[in-house]
Amino acid sequence: MQIITVNVNKGGAGKTTFTHNFAEYLRKNYRVLVLDFDDSANLTSRYGQFHDLHHTIIELFDHGVVEPIAISKNLDLIAGHREVELLKERVQSKRRREYLFGKWLAQNIQELQSKYDYILIDTENDEGILTQNAIITSDLVVGIAEPHKDNVTALANLRSFVNDLNADFDMNTQLVFVANKINRSKDNSKELLKSLSKFTEYAGYLPDRTLIADDVAIFNKKVVSKKNAQDVEHVSELFEVIRKKVEGEV
Ligand SMILES: Nc1ncnc2c1ncn2[C@@H]1O[C@H](COP(=O)(O)OP(=O)(O)O)[C@@H](O)[C@H]1O
Ligand SMILES: [Mg+2]
């Protein structure tokens, strides 16, 4: 079982879109548990409305007990909730607050390993306590940038953040970078790709497509055109590179 966190301290870069599509890619062949650590709960709302706290990260962090929701074949969700904002304040005053998620994992490791191949965590644009909990336990962090000013800086900051956490908590979390919303004929996309290609962490890009900017994952749509099919192929290849990376196969 491998744990992957998607984070960058930049709103709108595509974390939730990436997490959702990656989860839907993985579940074709693997068993996946998705967690939504963002108080805006955007990822959760792509799967439905869940108000019962027993299915949310609030119960996980407050009491160490949670019931994942069976969403579809091979995919379970531990939901986000708008009250996560308050949860973050409570967590701040707890002892070993960076380890609460790690503790839950350790206490449930046998069951989790028997049920899931991958755990995917969507986070918010911060370096806050829930994000720290996610990164500390992860095998891999995926950082995303879109072709806007400051997005490359945000990835460099993410690298420092992961390095600091690795040093402080004696971890060896790996990092990959993904460019998002790429239109190869536009200058800002070309600039982003040029900057990112210098980073050893760079894994590839997602194209700028209305097909991707949608609550339905790219793999769950009726593919109508040859261009759409090419996009699905391209995105699948990127996801497979990242999957192999976390498995240590590349
Ligand atoms: N590859 C893409 N092509 C087109 N639109 C995208 C793409 N990726 C994300 N978007 C759109 O960009 C916006 C921000 O994406 P989101 O995943 O919510 O970012 P984040 O979670 O980092 O805040 C959303 O409206 C989403 O639909
Ligand atoms: Mg998001």
UniProtKB/TrEMBL annotation:
Family annotation (Gene3D superfamilies): P-loop containing nucleotide triphosphate hydrolases (3.40.50.300)
AAA domain: from which residue to which, for each copy?
A: 1-168
Cross-referenced InterPro entries, in alphabetical order? Answer: AAA_dom (IPR025669), DNA_Partitioning_ATPase (IPR050678), P-loop_NTPase (IPR027417)
Under SUPFAM superfamilies, the record lists: P-loop containing nucleoside triphosphate hydrolases
Record-linked PANTHER family: COBYRINIC ACID AC-DIAMIDE SYNTHASE, P-LOOP CONTAINING NUCLEOSIDE TRIPHOSPHATE HYDROLASE
Q: What is this protein called?
A: AAA domain-containing protein
